[in-house]
Amino acid sequence: MGELVKLIAQSLVDNPEAVKVNEVEGAQSVIVELRVSPDDMGKVIGKQGRIAKAIRTVVKAAATKTKKRVTVEIIQD
């Protein structure tokens, strides 16, 4: 799931080298932490959080195969 989030985020931002993804696996869930440069934060979140919601929806759909709950967190440094 982390690779999918990284691919989506890199295609959205101006500085794709600054995209960092960290996965934290639990027994029944996975937390995907996404970090981008502060200048690109608005591009990843979008107006009223629409792009962030779309990213979460795509990841949730892809996670149905793994039978684990996946949460995407956008972390601001």
Describe the structure.
The protein has three helices and three strands; from the N terminus they run αββααβ. It is of the alpha+beta class and 77 residues long. A three-stranded mixed β-sheet has the order 1-2-3, covered by helices on one side. It is globular, with a radius of gyration of 12 Å.
- The proportion of residues forming helix, as a percent range, comes to 25-40%
End-to-end separation in angstroms reads 22 Å
The CATH class turns out to be Alpha Beta
Uncertain runs? none
Key words describing this protein structure:
single chain; 77 residues; alpha+beta; GMP Synthetase, Chain A, domain 3; 3 helices; globular
List the helices and strands and how they pair.
Elements: H1 2-12, E1 20-25, E2 29-35, H2 41-45, H3 50-62, E3 69-75
Parallel strand pairs: 2-3
Antiparallel strand pairs: 1-2
Summarize the structure.
38% of the residues lie in helices and 26% in strands. It is α+β, with helices and mostly antiparallel strands. The chain has a single domain (2-75), classed as K homology (KH) domain (GMP Synthetase, Chain A, domain 3, 2-Layer Sandwich), CATH 3.30.300.20.
